[in-house]
Amino acid sequence: MKYTHIAVSFLLLGYSSIGHAQLAPEEGISGNFSLLAAVSSTDSTLSTTVDAHLPNGEQARSEELLGAGLGNITYTFGDELNKQLFIGTSREDIATGLIALEMGYRHLTHSGTTFSLAFLPTVLTDEVWQDPYNWDTSREKTDRNGNAYLLSLSHINGSPFSIDIGFANIKIDEEKSGQTHLDRPEQKSMNRNAHSYFGKLSYQEMLTVTSGYSVSLRYLHHDTEGNAMTYNHLSAEGTWFKLHNRHKFAATLATGLSKFDKTNPIFEEQRSDAQYSVFGAYEFVSLFGNENLSFLSLASYSNHRSTIDFYSFEEYFFSSGFNISF
């Protein structure tokens, strides 16, 4: 459910027009804070919410209740209000339940291009299995963390086109993938510690004063220490958004393909994956007559199919809560 941040961005920030004169209406500090409650369901064998004991690698579905407080603060300055410092939690956290801090600098040029440079350190680590393939006994958890760096050029020269380029590193504290089934040399090929390089090209257009759409293509190269886990991923996303009086709607459809470089030594097969995701979001603004208070509701479904059944899964997600702007 990594695609949901697109639609959420439209809901929390309103809709974006192609031309921008300023980054904010006035100089100083502004931001928002969201308090959400959520439920998620997955049958992924890699999820640490499922049973630690996985007889013969069989799948089991699990449900999880989540709660999160998310927020963003910006400080806008400059004679033309074209400079901005920002810090907060990434909107992608709403879907994943993880807290990743995002901080950086944003600058609006005279040509209409918004330049942004961001650093995303891990605040709370993600849990994974030390050896996901140990279905003989109960699996043990370990922490996964990392940092990401993102360069964005939005509405280049006042056009509908935007480009994102990024780099991330991933480190697993106790990486023991394959140790229960493989000898030492083969086990190294399953190592998940990695560097990721990605780029995205987006196009956003307003259809009317109150509605529009965004489409994007994204490429990711995930370079792991174990060559059996290295892959290339290509995905496409489309989002439609609409404002009607005090109501805001957004819907996203995403699909992608992943191709792994080498044969997986545990399953003795080269892996390739296909996935699609759908996401819907709704926001009701000026709740109880307060223009800074709104109600949010988000729902998504993700289907991931792999040539190796062990990696196939389905996920559902639903949340609701409140957003306060200031």
UniProtKB/TrEMBL annotation:
Alphabetical list of InterPro entries matching this protein: DUF2860
Origin superkingdom: Bacteria
Pfam families the UniProt entry points to: DUF2860 (PF11059)
Alphabetical UniProt keywords: Signal
Signal peptide: 1-21
Protein name: DUF2860 domain-containing protein
